[in-house]
Amino acid sequence: MEIGFVKKNIVVKTNINNVWNFVSKIDSLNWLEGQKSTKFLSQKKRGVGTTRLISFEDGSMVEECIVGWHPKKYFSYIATSGLPLNSYHATISMNEIESGIKILWESYFSSNEEKSDFYTFTKFLSKFYVSSLRNLKVELEK
Question: 24: phi > 0 → left, psi -120 to 50 → alpha, else beta; which?
Fold first, then answer.
């Protein structure tokens, strides 16, 4: 079994309210690289227990469930289907710093894939986080 993690962050020049109000709309992911559409799969639309389905331009789909929710601090989610992994747990958190708001996106995951395939996926995920966070920065600093 392979175990990995990805941690990426970016600083945006705005306030914590703007960041939370934007990222907590978990069905509005126009900043997510390659995202085509996102829809709720649960009656619940915010907080722990909310489930969503993200469709990507390449035809892939990922189903996620919110497992942690602390307004203006973080939310955490797990992927329940759609990734080549046994487990995937991610958190997007935000902290006020002198130059703005630091947004941290981190994930921990495991897989039974071949080591080379796992390495390729980890590299892909790292690039995906970087480009998505850049898109998020552009949106938040408009």
Answer: alpha
